[in-house]
Amino acid sequence: MGEVLDAKLDGETEEGEAKRQPTRIQAINREIILEAALEVFATHGFRGSTVDQIATRAAMSKPNLLYYYRRKQDIYYAVLQHTLDDWLAPLEAIDAEGDPIEQLRRYITLKLEMSAENPAASRLFANEILAGAPVIGDFLRSRLRTLVHDKAAVIRRWVGEGRLAPVDPVHLIFLIWATTQHYADFDAQIRAVLGSQVEQPGFYEQAAQAVLTIVLNGIRPRD
Amino acid sequence: MGEVLDAKLDGETEEGEAKRQPTRIQAINREIILEAALEVFATHGFRGSTVDQIATRAAMSKPNLLYYYRRKQDIYYAVLQHTLDDWLAPLEAIDAEGDPIEQLRRYITLKLEMSAENPAASRLFANEILAGAPVIGDFLRSRLRTLVHDKAAVIRRWVGEGRLAPVDPVHLIFLIWATTQHYADFDAQIRAVLGSQVEQPGFYEQAAQAVLTIVLNGIRPRD
DNA sequence: GTCCGATTTGACCAAATAGTCAAGATTCCG
DNA sequence: CGGAATCTTGACTATTTGGTCAAATCGGAC
């Protein structure tokens, strides 16, 4: 393992063999499988998950599931692929020409919303990275790395212009990742500590409020 | 300290059967096993780890390892047990009578030091919680919950006295957990983004500096 | 309806894995 | 040293798991 994902996934296009148009049933079942697999991989990681678990969750026999994705690895790649781009979008959206505090408020808010709406995706990455990022390692070292350095440069400029308190931009980005993904990744812990409170409407707004208050005050330039 | 996990672990004491004094070899080998198991469980989680992996890492045959811990579960319990108390100590050490900013600076610093010194322990918990905290769930719902609520009350008082900016204490605690554990749990990602920079002396001090700056400024009362 | 490719699955296999056991090796203590 | 208790391991078993296959069923274009 440890490849750029693109190559593997749509890997049947090669070799002159005309790729068949996917049928309606294929589209539906692949979607069902990816959804089930996301949930399973997000909870137990690649090695801790079984094809049977995924098949059961997808309400499908194991051979049928393997008809759509021939190997456990293929499912894993597909799920990661399916989720990766979305994950970067908010960071990409930071606009160097915008107002620093406003841009970062927006970034944090978007990340928190993603954690709330798709916690499984966050946990999927968390598991992959805990395992040492064997599959997305190359992706992290190339695309993510470039993106982070680009946006860090933007933030560094803002700091230089006195529009943000002096702070290391990369560590600021890490801090934002940490705080926003925490609500998805450590959901079980948060539920253990807060109980039913987590279910109450407005819980996520309250969390967002707290994170935004602390982080934005933390980087607002002091007079 | 007595914890929830006790019951399962040293379960042979009961039944009048006198527990033998552990021999020197036992003490050494159990230590070796726990160290190896921590590393393996921290990387792949309980389900993703194999007894063989642990045995290999402990430079020991599998049956020999199973002579010391009869089941995979037993090793897992023992490793968690071995690490749990340490993990709570810093939060417990927050002193209601101290200076708020100073107490929180100390708490953050201690947590960051623990992440740097024993990242595997942090990842072990991360894996356990991602899996839904099947083993330490009761612990989280009892001891951790109580402790968090106690310390949240302390922080709430500080806020009430105007010694901290108005912020939800529980979310502040979560934010501190998130940011401090991030450097251990997401080490692979951080290395991917920063490369060899992570190895340079002073990297952790720099991280600590950034986190402390942002968080402490974020909660310092505004005039 | 008919037919052909697409879909589904029961039965199966080989490898991996948790755990057992009895016999041999080592350590400890007098 | 000598013997008992402790420790170690090769060989083994039962179960789980990833993956295959051929045969049965289904769906849709004509």
What does it look like?
2 copies of one chain form a homodimer. The first copy, chain A, is mainly alpha-helical and 223 residues long. Helix content of chain A is 72%, strand content 0%. In chain A, helix 2 (24-48) packs across helix 7. Chain A is globular and about 65 Å long. Chains A and B meet through helix 2, helix 7, helix 8, helix 9 and helix 10 of A and helix 2, helix 7, helix 8, helix 9 and helix 10 of B. The structure holds a DNA duplex (30 and 30 nucleotides).
Overall number of strands of chain A: 0
Please state the oligomeric state of the protein chains shown: homodimer
- The number of distinct helices of chain A, counting runs of at least 4 residues, comes to 11
Gross morphology of chain A is: globular
The interface involving the most residues is between: A-B, 61 and 61 residues
Helix share bin of chain A: over 70%
> Which regions of chain A have little confidence, pLDDT < 50, spanning 5+ residues?
6-18
| Biggest beta sheet summary of chain A | none
Number of domains of chain A: 2
Instruction: Output the radius of gyration of chain A.
Output: 20 Å
How far is the N terminus from the C terminus of chain A? 51 Å
Order of helices and strands of chain A: HHHHHHHHHHH
CATH architecture of the largest domain in chain A: Orthogonal Bundle
| CATH top-level class of the largest domain in chain A | Mainly Alpha
Structural category of chain A is mainly alpha
Name the beta content range of chain A: under 5%
CATH topology of the largest domain in chain A: Tetracycline Repressor, domain 2
CATH superfamily caption of the largest domain in chain A: Tetracycline Repressor, domain 2
Average per-residue pLDDT of chain A, rounded, comes to 91
